[in-house]
């Protein structure tokens, strides 16, 4: 058995993935679920690479029917685990207090489909060893299990598609209260899995076609590196990110600092650019100037300032109005004129906001 460069990359990816899987499953931190589900994601990718390594390098050495049953149908491809692991990884990062409930565990029940061929193969190997099954029957079992594994490609793609979609929806719904570092990381991760899922979905359609065996005489070996090299590249990417500590694991501390930073940006826009002076200022305009979504700004105002958009803007207007009222050089201005200069569109709105902010009337500040 000789290793070429590509085979060596597969093997190195296996070793690297295994080390990081061990680290994530053993890691104790404030967000243990995130580490565990990240480990499960990496486990599915690493096992599939192990399956590829076995197919390309060991198949010719599996002469005994028992070893062929056990090695060929070992659960290398646990992709019915990948979708739920990806989804719950997102939930554990977006919700620091996330805990896996009993009903959440039902998401992992389809994994039994992945294990079924191996369990049947184990039973077949035992029955054949006890001479309760002929060689022809054992070979028929190998062929039937191979067909079963081929059809398992369909629920795998469907499962991953569903959970990728659920993860996208969850990420978008959590956007306003998610720190930028976590949002960017999860968005990039989802984009990678979306592309891979679409690619393998198209490949699955091709594999189900009866013409694939005519086009590729040595199928499945012709598709070997096309299928598994992207997965190995993803393993390298995830393990390097992990070892360089470039993966955010909790949004608690990050959320606080991110919230404060964005709140400071809003205050700077008000204080330096005097946006509040525009009587037609709306949340949409502030969203464009601050380069934040409207939902994000509303969340920041509610959580950081404990107030709504109108109260936030009116406080700045009232603050400048008080300075102008007290300024002796501006005694020639009427209260209505001052109200218009600071952004109030009407006298009644000016007085109402003034009373709410200061508990006093504008006239109370006239010396």
What does this structure look like?
It contains 16 helices and no strands. It has 367 residues and is mainly α. It has 2 domains: 5-248; 254-365, Orthogonal Bundle (Arc Repressor Mutant, subunit A), CATH 1.10.10.60. The protein is rod-shaped.
Per-chain topology:
Elements: H1 5-26, H2 32-57, H3 65-72, H4 79-94, H5 111-129, H6 135-151, H7 153-173, H8 180-207, H9 212-215, H10 224-243, H11 252-273, H12 283-290, H13 294-305, H14 309-326, H15 335-341, H16 347-358
As an assembly, this protein is: single chain
Mean pLDDT: 81
- The poorly predicted ranges are none
Could you tell me how far the N terminus lies from the C terminus, measured between alpha carbons in angstroms?
Answer: 96 Å
User: Considering DSSP H and I runs of 4 or more, what fraction of the residues is helical?
Assistant: over 70%
Number of strands: 0
Number of domains: 2
For the biggest sheet, the summary is:
none
Shape: rod-shaped
How much β-strand is present in the residues?
A: under 5%
Q: List SSEs in N-to-C order.
A: HHHHHHHHHHHHHHHH
Q: Radius of gyration in whole Å, from Cα?
A: 31 Å
Number of helices: 16
* Broad structural category: mainly alpha
Short description:
With 367 residues, the chain is mainly alpha-helical.
List keywords for this structure.
mainly alpha; Arc Repressor Mutant, subunit A; 367 residues; 0% strand; 71% helix
